[in-house]
Request: fold
Amino acid sequence: MVFFIFFVLTMISPVHATCSILSHPSFGSPAQNYFAGQGSDIIQGTPLGAWIHSQDHGSNLAFRCSPAINGAYWRYNVGLNILMKNYVDIDDGLTYDVYQTATAGIGLIIRYQIANGPYVPMVGVGFHNSQVFSLPINSIVPVYISIKYILTNSLALATGTQHIPGLYLFNASGNGLYSSSGVVLTGVTTTLTGGLTVNVSSTACQLQNTSITLALPTVSSTDIINNNPVNYPTGNLILNNCPVGVNVWITITDTLEPTNVSNILTERENEPSGIGIQILLDNAPINFGPAPVYKTTLTPFSSIQVVNGSGGGTEIIPISAQYALTGGAVGVGIFTKQAYINFSYP
Reply:
């Protein structure tokens, strides 16, 4: 008996999606978008992280495909240099990389949002893929791009009117819309930021004395242990030419251990044990702390407001130092301590 087996071969043609990337909401093509800049005023000495100009949903894209795509992602190629990592924004609490602009002292952070999804910070350089999303047939799926210029070092800015040139956020190559299998659906042109003009005024107050020395007296360990009266030295920090109404905060940082947040300076090797040095403002020991890298780190715990609404002119801030017990047997010897003072004008 002979059996005949017939094979029927059916060729299934792949479905090719026709997709486009447009400007949103104008739906223009090609999708080369532009952020409009605007003026801003800056005072030298403003804490880092203060924003200069931000644009939420300022320059946006839109994806549209036919037929529907169940899985797609946006691939973008960041073409900027990173100036600072792990910056926590004071507005949305998200962690960003701060990108370098052409102007020293000013950085840029970027985030995006696909349709009604969560805000996603852009971090790193080179190629990145967004989360996967769906594209219903011929439906518009917007991608909202937000930028924010922030201060990274206001003292690096020269006084007067400064112009921040526009720059491209993304490299042209590799940008585009992809299927979840990695197939290129369409490409997208670069996105350009607008130039920004800022007016930089001089530091709110001028520091008269750039250093101060407090020479503590020689005392016996008994005086310290028994809390006997000691004639401690005092000095003054003098701020001149303060504008009316200005607020001034200071943060004192332990030179030997900048992360020290106690009220006693770090002990050096071969210094006396059981005893340390405190710095006092208004006759009260202050907590030390790192220099305020961002505006959010200018906190009452380690930063002290020393001028509250200046009447204008000169402000005098008394400062002193004293010995303090740290526990254990008190040794003898010589101390040499150093700290530096950061002035901020929030």
About this structure: The first helix runs from residue 221 to 225. The mean pLDDT is 77.
